Amino acid sequence: MTDGMENQRSSVWYPSAAVVSKANVTRLAAELHCENYAQLYKLSIETPDAYWAHLMDFLHIRWSQPYDAYCDLSLGKPFPSWFVGGELNWVDTIFAWADQNGDGTSVIAEQEDGTVSQLSYRDLERRVKSFAAGLREEGIRRGDRIGLLMENGVEAVVSFLGISCLGAIAVPLFSGFGRDAVVSRLSLCGAVGLIATSGFSRRGKTVDVISMVQDVSRDLPELRTIIVKGAAALPPGCRDWATVHGDNTDDLPACMRADDPMMAIFTSGTTGKPKGAVHTHGGFPLKIAHDAAVHFDIGPGDVFCWPADMGWIAGPLVLASALMRGATLVCYDGAPDYPNKSRMSRLIERHRVTHFGSSPTLIRGLASNEIESLAGDRSTLRLLVTAGERIDPEHFIWFAKVFGEDRCPLINYTGGTEVSGAILSNVPTLPIVPSGFNSASPCLQVDVLDDDGAPVRGAIGELAILAPFVGMTHRFWNDRERYLETYWSRFEGVWIHGDLAMLDEAGVFFILGRSDDTLKIAGKRVGPSEVEEILLDVPAVAETAAIGIDDAIKGQQLVVFVVPRDISVAVDVLERDVADRVAGRLGKPFRPARVHVVPQLPKTRSLKIMRRVIRNLYTGRPAGDLSSLDNPAALEHIRTAAGLGDQIDLRG
Predict the structure, then answer these.
(1) Distance between CA 226 and CA 211 in Å, rounded?
(2) Contact predicate 192/223, CB 8 Å
(3) Any idea what the Cα angle at residue 106 is, between residues 285 and 312, rounded to 5°?
(4) Residue 205 to residues 283, 311, 507, Cα–Cα distance (Å)
(5) Fewer Cβ within 10 Å of end Cβ, the chain: N or C?
(6) Cis before residue 253, ω within 30 degrees of 0?
(7) What is the distance between the alpha carbons of residues 477 and 276, in angstroms, rounded to a whole number?
(8) Residues 6+ apart with CB under 8 A from 272
(9) How far is CA 84 from the centre of its chain?
(10) For 508-534, what is each residue's pLDDT tens digit?
(11) Residue 515 CB burial class (10 angstroms; 0-12, 13-18, ≥19)
(12) What are the Cα distances from residue 130, in Å, to 133, 144, 246, 280?
């Protein structure tokens, strides 16, 4: 257990001389005549054009036509054009590894039932080009939007790369989406094709998808091409994924401009319709290749596993991180704790994984079942990653010191769908503070601003990016004004990301929650994670969420939801312990007005707790967009806590 900033500081991870000497970022700094990382970051901010010019060789980016200019800002900061005049297809950089190491393994895919398949880099190139040619024979053309609704595996990798190879635009869809969520996203971008699975396994049970695909096809008559993987009987008008191939591949991959879209990926808005972030061939893939080298320290011979759904940004991110760096991508499409908590460590052992990524929620689950979760041999690991939401210091330290055997740097990584990769991250050559970020990502000029737009230190503010950057969304699909309002409307020429952050005097960043989750109690701004971190120190608490509700005197009252580790817990005792702990650590004004003990909290499939939904339901407002909700039963527990339902049964 850890407690407070002092204990965080006492648990700092320091890189060994061997880690520093072998790191990609050390070699990059030397090639750019920088004595250390600080000088490298400074160079990236002051001369980003020179930094990226060198990166093209360092990252082995393959261009069919070299670019003339690094950036054109003639349309203003929100709408930069990158690598002007350049032409490339990002998958060509992956194919280049087939020339260097064609027999090397590109993809290993493990299904929930234990079935394993794999491809070499040479096989991957052949399969992707053939699939792209097959799409063309099905009538798919350059610029067409193609939905991708598949569980992670070889077929999903080939499909995603094949769409780009042809010059079409992938629209990733979460494998757990229902009909309405799929229809809204495909209709918003005018998709003409859908590549889908017929179903997948989750905890040993088959999840049917094909019936939903049939519903979608009826609602979207503009879908002229529907390709289905693994169907015992194909619905009328659908093609079998296994039969989509072509021989005319000489002109593939298609030659694209740097600012041609390769992906439109939708993220749920707080209200209203989903936002479609548009990413380009010269944006997202180059940013991810950069982060994979600088932050994740990935290169040829490494094996990267980060179980992630292809429908969220993490799926394409992990794919590009491994394959653009000539490493091996390990896909897993099942529940990460099935049949038990040893699944991830056994997977690491089976495939000799060197780099492993996990969400904080999964880390908490592994830590709560430590003996089982550590059953597999993890001696091949040399780097860990966590992302997706804020991680508390206790579980950060457990993941690094116990799961990673105190050998591996733990790369805390935060960015988002609209920015491709990292805004903030750790680099493995610098000391790492639990839950912190030891650097802004190179070329991103990042600060923390107060309500007036002035920089603040040691206090909560808004995470801000002060200049355009490679990887930022090209726009929102057909929604220019919403894009401007979301990121560029607060302060002139500044991207406000929507995260609460703090930058301390030592230069370490901390993320403290989303801005729309901010608590303001007794005149003080508090991030929900500051409260939740305290409660996760309570032995009886497994998970927690903190929200603020309006109060005429305090501005807001604090309301806390906790999931107990043991359903037999004495609820009144736990409620009192939780309230006392918060008041004792933050002060009496922050004592929760209500503590609710519930069996589960609403989460996304990527295991993020949906505080927005909790707050809306608890205050009697519509829940909002539920398309990413994974456990609908949790909603009734929140309604009950608000006095709108029956008594809560902790057995869920």
Answers:
(1) 13
(2) yes
(3) 45
(4) 39, 21, 48
(5) N
(6) yes
(7) 5
(8) 625
(9) 28
(10) 999 988 777 777 776 666 778 778 888
(11) middle
(12) 5, 18, 5, 23
CA atoms lying within 13 Å on the CB side of residue 278: 19
Higher pLDDT, residue 587 or 339: 339
User: pLDDT confidence of 609, banded at 50, 70, 90?
Assistant: confident
- CA distances to 221, 312, 400 from 191, in Å: 10, 18, 43
CA distance 71 to 86: 11
Low-confidence winner among 84-93, 125-134, 613-622 (lowest mean pLDDT): 613-622
DSSP string for residues in 538-597: STTEEEEEEEEEEETTTEEEEEEEEEESSTTS-HHHHHHHHHHHHHHHH-GGGS-SEEEE
Residue 2 is predicted with a pLDDT of 36
What domains are defined for the chain?
4-510 (3.40.50.12780), 518-641 (3.30.300.30)
Q: What six digits make up the tokens of 164?
A: 């780009």
Q: ∠ CA 416-419-425 to the nearest 5 degrees? A: 65
3-state secondary structure string across 38-88: HHHHHHHHHCHHHHHHHHHHHCCCCCCECCCEEEECCCCCCCCEEEECCEC
Q: Which residues of 118-128 are buried (b: 16+ CB within 10 A; e: fewer)?
A: bbbbbbbbbbb
At residue 444, the 3 state secondary structure works out as coil
**Do 359 and 386 meet the contact criterion of CB atoms below 8 Å apart?**
yes
